């Protein structure tokens, strides 16, 4: 499944290739509370069809009305991007459903050949991070290597935005837990790859939108070379499969590396990786084990939710002292039980 940015770019490219006038809308800046962050995208065609969003919904209605009043074709014929601001006054913020004090500044860009959306899409699909510079006077676009999570910048003459590969999840082990985890990851726009060389595990495992690999996990990790938009989660409980994949993942740029197991098994895993494979304490500190946030999970679906919540938190730069990682939560629960029973 595509992430939202990719879907917006692909749909806008398809509309334009079919000869339809298209306007690409980008959230350039926000002040105060805002439903959508800078860099969020939406595309509108001449029929009023949209993909993506720039707010909770109310701005979109007014935006579509404004563009239709002027005519999408007329907007596109001008060839010049337009800057539009919502929420300047308290009355306007209330009218458009913006939080108190919220202001959103949008750039409306007529899509043309010089928009270079097709090239941008190709770069994203090749897992390249790109800075896109839009000239507000001409509509011309420059593409250059850039930081995936760079902060958009708008000045009097240019809009700088940053796009790149969608988040990717590599799951080691095919089973019930990996199925729930994959379904959740797909729903959040992750590219998902499940790896398991065991034929008996893969015989009945299939999920639309998920790539299933029969390689040895360490071979897969070495081949894919996880980047800073990739998470790796080991779910087999088999050291022959999990450990070798974790060794390579911990030495990659992956933003998250985790493995399931009890606290005791997790400590034994760290000891093996340190003593037998020479991983440093610094590398092992990046290993999330047991993987997940503590939510008292019992079922495979609940465990998957716990793991996915931690993956997303790390991806979004959230500190993990609150909410509680699984190991700390279980330790606190054990202490609480022992205290209550006098043990």
Tell me which oligomeric state these chains represent: single chain
The proportion of strand residues reads 15-25%
Which fold name fills CATH's third level, the topology of the largest domain? Rossmann fold
Reading the helices and strands in chain order gives HEEEHHEHEHEEEEEHEHEHEHEHHEHH
Q: What is the CATH homologous superfamily assignment of the largest domain?
A: NAD(P)-binding Rossmann-like Domain
The radius of gyration over CA amounts to: 23 Å
Q: Number of DSSP strands?
A: 15
Q: What's the average pLDDT? A: 86
The CATH architecture category of the largest domain equals 3-Layer(aba) Sandwich
Q: What's the CATH class label of the largest domain?
A: Alpha Beta
| Morphology call | elongated
Range of helix content: 25-40%
SSE-based structural type: alpha/beta
Q: What low-confidence regions span 5 or more consecutive residues with pLDDT below 50? A: 336-343
Number of domains: 2
Protein name: Xanthine dehydrogenase accessory factor
Domain XdhC Rossmann: 169-311
Domain XdhC- CoxI: 15-87
InterPro entries: MoCofactor_Util/Proc, XdhC_CoxI, XdhC_Rossmann_dom
Structure notes:
Residues 169-311 form the XdhC Rossmann domain. This is Xanthine dehydrogenase accessory factor. InterPro entries: MoCofactor_Util/Proc (IPR052698), XdhC_CoxI (IPR003777), XdhC_Rossmann_dom (IPR027051). It holds the Pfam family XdhC_C. It comes from Hydrogenophaga palleronii. The structure is a single chain. Mean pLDDT is 86; it is low at 336-343. Strand 8 (153-154) and strand 9 form a beta hairpin. It is built from 13 helices and 15 strands. The protein is α/β, with parallel strands linked by helices and 343 residues long. 39% of the residues lie in helices and 22% in strands. The strands form three sheets. A six-stranded parallel sheet has the order 12-11-10-13-14-15, sandwiched between helices. A five-stranded antiparallel sheet has the order 3-2-1-5-4. The protein has two domains: 4-163, no CATH class; 168-332, Rossmann fold (3-Layer(aba) Sandwich). Helix 1 packs antiparallel against helix 5 (117-125) and helix 2 crosses helix 3 (72-78).
């Amino acid at each position: 499944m595509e992430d939202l940015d990719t879907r917006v770019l692909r749909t806008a490219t398809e509309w334009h290739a079919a000869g339809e006038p298209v306007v690409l809308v980008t959230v350039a800046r926000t002040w105060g509370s805002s439903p959508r962050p800078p860099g969020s995208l939406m595309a509108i065609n001449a029929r009023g069809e949209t993909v993506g969003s720039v707010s909770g919904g109310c701005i979109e209605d007014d935006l579509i009305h404004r563009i239709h009043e002027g005519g999408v074709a007329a907007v596109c014929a001008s060839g010049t991007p337009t800057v539009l601001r919502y929420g300047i006054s308290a009355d306007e913020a209330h009218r458009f459903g913006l939080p108190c004090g919220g202001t959103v500044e949008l750039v409306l860009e007529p899509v043309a050949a010089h928009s270079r959306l097709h090239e941008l899409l190709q770069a994203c699909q090749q897992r390249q991070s790109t800075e896109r510079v839009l000239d507000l006077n001409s509509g011309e676009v420059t593409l250059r290597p850039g930081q995936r999570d760079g902060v958009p910048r708008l000045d009097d003459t240019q809009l700088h935005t940053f796009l790149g590969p969608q988040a990717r999840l590599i799951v080691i082990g095919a089973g019930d837990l990996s199925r729930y985890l994959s379904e959740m990851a797909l729903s959040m726009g992750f590219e998902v790859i499940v790896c398991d060389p065991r034929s008996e595990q893969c015989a009945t495992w299939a999920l639309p939108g998920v790539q299933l690999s029969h390689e040895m996990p360490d071979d897969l990790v070495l081949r894919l070379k996880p980047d800073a938009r990739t998470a790796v989660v080991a779910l087999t409980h088999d050291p022959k499969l999990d450990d070798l994949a974790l060794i390579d993942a911990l030495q990659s740029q992956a933003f998250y590396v985790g493995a399931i197991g009890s606290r005791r098994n997790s400590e034994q895993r760290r000891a093996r990786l340190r003593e037998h494979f020479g991983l440093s304490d610094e590398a092992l500190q990046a290993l999330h084990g047991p993987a997940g946030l503590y939510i008292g999970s019992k079922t495979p679906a609940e465990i998957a939710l716990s793991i996915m919540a931690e993956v997303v938190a790390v991806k979004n730069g959230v500190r993990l002292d609150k909410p509680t990682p699984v190991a700390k939560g279980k330790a606190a629960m054990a202490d609480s039980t022992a205290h209550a029973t006098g043990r």
